[in-house]
Specification:
The chain is elongated. It is mainly alpha-helical. The protein has one domain (about 1-100). α1 (about 1-10) packs across α4 and α2 packs antiparallel against α4 (about 65-100). The relative contact order is 0.16. It has helices at about 1-10, 15-45, 50, 65-100.
């Protein structure tokens, strides 16, 4: 019985679309975050003069706003993923559950 449900879910086009779309989207956001994080770290490691240089005539260095950008970027990326997960990915998941429960594979989200 349970193997039958697993096979129905794996054969469902909505499941295949969900796995493909969510994986691609997740990796794209992961790479964006990694570029920002490692870019900031590499700037700290290899261009200390730039990170320590003052902005204008004030006392703030470039490291402070860039560090704040990294934090805000992470929050934004999380919000972007959650928004898409709550709309598109949840709709596909609901369609997959309906198809598995009914035994049909033709229902589309």
């Amino acid at each position: 019985m349970e193997d039958d449900i697993v096979q129905r879910v794996k054969a469902d086009p909505n499941y295949q679309k969900l796995v493909k779309t969510r994986s691609r989207y997740g990796w794209m956001l992961t790479w964006a975050v990694m570029i920002v994080y490692y870019g900031f770290t590499l700037l700290n490691a290899f261009d200390k003069q730039f990170m320590a240089s003052k902005i204008g005539a004030g006392v703030m260095s470039w490291g402070v706003p860039l560090g704040l950008f990294v934090i805000l970027f992470t929050i934004a990326v999380t919000g972007i993923y959650v928004r898409r997960a709550n709309s598109e990915f949840d709709a596909l998941t609901d369609a997959i559950q309906r198809n598995a429960a009914s035994g049909k594979e033709k229902v589309r989200a």
